UniProtKB/TrEMBL annotation:
PROSITE patterns: PROKAR_LIPOPROTEIN
Organism: Neolewinella aurantiaca
Region (Disordered): 26-48
Coiled-coil ranges from the UniProt annotation: none
Gene3D superfamilies: protein yfey like domain (2.60.460.10)
Domain of life: Bacteria
Protein name: Lipoprotein
Signal sequence, start to end: 1-21
Keywords: Signal
Amino acid sequence: MKNISGLFFLLLLLLFLVSCSSEPTSVTDTSGTETPAAETEDPNDGNTAIYDVDADDPYLVSNDYFLGMTPGGSLADFKDGLRNGELRTGEGAFEVFYIDGAEGDELGYVYSMDGAEGTIDQITITSPKVVTEEGVRVGLSFNELTQRLGELEVFASEIESRVYATKNGVTYRLNTNGTPGKTTAEDIKGDVEVAQIILGF
C-alpha cells in the first residue's frame, strides 16, 4: 500500500511539473476576452549562419559602406578602431588594418595604398557574421549566390589563379582556382563557397 501511494505521489508531481512548464495557448484579459498567447521564438529562428538578413544581424554591408567605411573614404577617420597588421599573398606583403567585431573576432580588413593616413582602396570581408542587403555572406554556395544576384561575371586572377565573381560593383572571391582568361561561370561547381566579399576591388 505504501508503494502505491508513493507511486501516486510521483505521478501527481510529474503532472504538476509538466503543466507548469507548458506555455499558455491563450490569454484572458480583464474583460474576459480570450486571445492567443504571444509566441516566444528565437529571433534567429530560420536564419542560418549563411542565409537571410535578420534584424539582429549586427554587421551589414549597405551601399558600399561597412561600419561607416567605404572605398574612396578616409582611412584616417577609422584607423584608431582598427588593428594594424600585414597580409601576405602571392603578390607580396601588404600593410592592412584588421576589422574586429564587438566580441573580438576578426570580420575582415581594410587596405590603403597610402597607409593609415590615406584613402580606403578596398574593404575585404572574411567573416560569415557580416551580411549584404541581398543576404550574401561568406560561406554561401555559388548556386545560392546566383539565385540571389542573378548572372555574375566570373574570372580568374593572373598571379594566383583565384576565382572571383562580380555583380553591381561588389566582388565575391570564390573558394576555388581557375585558369586566367578562360574560367567562366559555367566552370564553377554549384557547391563552391564564397570565401570573401570585397568592396572596391
